[in-house]
């Protein structure tokens, strides 16, 4: 028997909560990107992991709240904020050519952004598309999986299947 998810509408507000993350070899690139887009970014709430947040604050004067560095749980802190509905966009300049010791954390962050339908940029080109989107300075309505309702409906469906199996065994 197939199962389909239940959905609920969600709204990303006009003023966005943006996470800014960069691997070591990409920190200069994200700082340059922030400087280029400072006029837009200053109208939103910025968050970042460890050194990236500190460097952005020092070099751009943009206000940014810092979390732990990525290898010390910063990516997971950003992921937890996504789950809580407190991060709307992730800009993550990742280094695809260098192995990262916290790669499982990075993959978990990418997955949670996908599950919660959060725009995520993994490079400058995608970040440019996001920041110039017509939705950047307006509300954005989208559908999210209603996990609580979906779990309840799936549990009911499984219970019905068990009852049917038990009836067949009695025959």
Please outline the helices and strands.
Layout (H helix, E strand, L loop, with lengths): L6 E6 L4 E6 L4 H10 L1 H4 L3 E5 H11 L3 E4 L6 H10 L5 E5 L9 H13 L4 E2 L2 H8 L8 E6 L1 H24 L1
Parallel strand pairs: 2-3, 2-5, 3-4, 5-6
Antiparallel strand pairs: 1-7
Helix pairs in contact: 1-3, 4-5
Q: What pattern of helices and strands is seen along the backbone?
A: EEHHEHEHEHEHEH
CATH superfamily: Methylglyoxal synthase-like domain
- Order of strands in the sheet with most strands: 4-3-2-5-6
First-residue to last-residue Cα separation: 21 Å
Count of spatially separate domains: 1
Report the major sheet. 5 strands, parallel
Tell me, briefly, the overall form: elongated
Strand content: 15-25%
Low-confidence segments, ≥5 residues, pLDDT <50?
A: none
Fraction in helix: 40-55%
Write the CATH architecture name. 3-Layer(aba) Sandwich
Mean pLDDT: 92
What is the β-strand count?
7
